[in-house]
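Hi R.,

Here's the input for the zinc ion complex you asked about:
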Amino acid sequence: MNRVSIQTVHLEAIVDHARACLPAECCGILIGLPVGEQPPTSTADESLQVSEVHPVRNIASADQSNHYKIDPLDHLRLQRTARERGLRILGFYHSHPQGPAEPSIEDMRRPWAGYAYLVIAPGHNANNGSPPAISLHTAPDNMTANQRHSPTPPSPGPWHVRCWEWNDTQGLFTEIPLRVADATT
Ligand SMILES: [Zn+2]
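And here is the predicted structure with zinc ion in place:
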């Protein structure tokens, strides 16, 4: 995929969910469709437009402050209801209460290629009860979680949101540009 578009209202829903689950990781499913005038020739050309965000339960049996597991039943249920409406599962989100907004070693145990992985992490003021502020970080090109010199996200807001895709060939996560695409009225 070459980019993921999401609306502010969805980012706010994700942050609200992450706050509510603290100190545990939250998780959820992103639903929508590829966009573009032409059908992509390969998944590498796809731009994904998130149109729904579905919080699901974290059923990890390990320490939930640094593990998450999406209930397979929720996954199947949302896959079915998405298909019924001509949509599909585009990816998943989860939080890192202890940061950063990058895939952890744990996340590399079971990644699926072709899906967007949104990772969100609180900044220092995430717990102070103020309205969620969100900081999007977009890598210039092919930034990977393995690169030690990846720039720290700018921090105007207390939550950082970054988007990643698993690259099966290289065996690593690559950062995908994340854009806020709010409907214009
Ligand atoms: Zn993680």
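One thing worth noting: The helical segments are 8-21, 72-84.

Cheers,
M.
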